[in-house]
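Let us work through a complete example step by step.
Step 1: write down the sequence.
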Amino acid sequence: MKPEANKKPIRWNVFVPCFLVIGGAALLGIINNEWLTSVTSSIFGWSLSTFGWLYQIVAMVTLLLAVLLTFTKVGKIRFGGPEAKAKYSFGSWFAMTLTGGIATGLITYGVNEVLIYFGNIYGELDALGIQPLSDEAAWFSMGRCFYNWTFIPYAMYALSGVLIAYMYFNRKKDLSVAASLTPLFGDKVTKGIWVVLVDVLSVLAIALGLAASLGAGLALIGTGLHAAYGVAQGPIVWFALTAIITITFTVASVTGIDKGIKWLAGLTSKIFYVLLILLFIIGPTVYILNMANVGLGYWLDRFWTWGFDPYTVGGSALVTWWTMYDWAIWIAYAPLMGIFFAIIAYGRTIRQFLIVNWILPASFGFVWFAIWGGTALHWQIAGKADIIAAINEGGAVAGIWEFLKQIPLGMIIIPVIILALIAAFSTTADTMSTTIAALCTKGARHDEEPAVWQKIVWGVSIGLIACIMVAFGGGAQGVDGVKYLAACGGFVVLIVFILQVAAAFKVFFFDPETKKDIVDSVDQIEE
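Step 2: predict the structure and record it as tokens.
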């Protein structure tokens, strides 16, 4: 870290309104949590039911744009110019993007979401006329999870990252969300009220989205401690877990991206790889492979219907509460996650960026759900584990612990999973608090760290909101409160993300200046 990094002035016009909203939400949750839950619930229902059609169109256009950028000559563009040298190896780079991007989503829903669909626990199959626990319910469950967790959502992350990285490294614009919109509005969008508005909305969106992810994760760890060790869930447990996570990512923040985040990401990714290999070996291998094929075919057979259905075909229990919620939280994350992805992508080409940030993590999600979800389905059908009963009793995130109990050496694997969850939370909290702090710092650079105190402020505030919503906004699924938060975050930044999509189309395919950057170059990595 450069010694002058922490001495740069703060963008108080971004920091103050964001802190007042985030800190105020945390305080409000303590004082009047019922009102906070009620308001976020109303926004959740209204935004996703009213604008579901728009979310779906944006998702499909984003997917198309990712394909075009990857497989056309635009993919040759190297961030920083033809001679730029990359800072991280492909292994370290992918570990940071994978673990920083998915947080705990794969662990949380790799088993739970598949079985929730299969058992029609919250009415997800009602509008489709599929019989719960049937063969088709199993095919649908796999296909729908592939749809929700692979190529479409990761395209959202990747698009923001590509645009921000190109505008920052090649066009020499500021490292900010607003600067990524200059292809549409010129430099005026980086001045005055507009830059403040865009960056404030982006910070609020990621803060709400991150609070939602942390909240779901806290609920997940809480159910794990109860299932494995009989520890009763409650506010004390959740606040204790938040304290552990906050301390972990604070230590990582102090050491910076090159050591803290890189080390945490490496640890988390290795745990993920080992768990995948282990379960593939001890699980029903042939069944896993068969269901991967069938689930992929089921999804592709319904690609266009699923891709544009706002809830009219699939019903709100499935589309609004799952897919639209997913799109909302991915969009909430996208602009600021894009900044983090841009920071660590210097010296790489657009094609390499999209392979590492779109194709590989989407493929990893496919493999994860095929192995974890396929095994869970087989064990539920065979009567080896009653995961559906566990979810009915303990909430939407409780099924994984019943599943893990049936794995050989499960009592050893369970604490490893809890460790992986804490590491994944910490990695995501670290990356996002670092990014938020950078956005609140004047003249932020990709090779400098923002002030540590800022990271701590944002991390603690976000953690408090997550705890409050888990403790007091549980609802039917046990994580309703944090789902409301996520949808609010995505809705806040939806217009900004749509503008980023338009800006990407314009700068990469209609701007003559961009053609000058489309040249052949050779990979170089710093020694």
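Step 3: interpret the result. The chain has a mean pLDDT of 85.
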